[in-house]
Design a protein that fits this description.
There is one protein chain. The chain has four helices and seven strands. The chain is of the alpha+beta class. The protein has one domain (13-146): Electron Transport, Fmn-binding Protein, Chain A (Pnp Oxidase, Chain A). The radius of gyration is 14 Å and the shape is globular. The protein starts with 12 loop residues before the first helix and ends with a strand. The mean pLDDT is 96.
């Protein structure tokens, strides 16, 4: 449940602060995207280049115990850096949704499965639909499931 290595906080202050507050409170504080009321989860992975431990808040998109991790980056033309971390280390990921983090394995979904998860993601966080219109890339969707399952 812990990824060994040196933790390097995000260069973005609001991300650093949110991760710290979420983790220190067991997910009872800083558990929404700023003041929107939309819930988030935190995932931890290893940097694909640096090998350092990275922590990222993403929108909470859960279905039957699995979670979508949507690499939207607000509709930017490129994928977020964490996309490459998940591609490089799909079995070295920890997710926290509430008080206790747990080990997950992730896989990028495509085809009908991606469509299904994309619909769930947009239902959970409607701005994703607009983000897709801002970019020519198909926004990647990963599904994270408990390693024990």
């Amino acid at each position: 449940m812990v990824i060994d290595g040196e933790y390097e906080p995000s260069p973005s202050r609001w991300v650093r602060d949110q991760v710290e507050e979420y983790e220190s409170s067991g997910g009872t504080r800083a558990n929404t995207l700023r003041d929107t009321g939309w819930p988030i989860v935190i995932f931890t992975t290893r940097g694909n280049r640096s090998g350092k431990v990275r922590k990222t808040p993403v929108m909470r998109v859960e279905h039957d115990g699995e979670y979508a991790l949507v690499a939207s980056m607000g509709g930017a033309p490129e994928n977020p850096v964490w996309y490459y971390n998940l591609r490089a280390f799909p079995e070295d990921v920890v997710l926290q949704d509430g008080p206790e983090p747990f080990d997950v394995v992730v896989r990028q979904v495509s085809g009908d499965e991606r469509v299904q998860w994309w619909e769930r993601a947009v239902a959970a966080y409607p701005p994703y639909a607009e983000y897709q219109t801002r970019t020519d890339r198909e926004i990647p969707v990963f599904v994270a499931r408990h390693k024990d399952i």
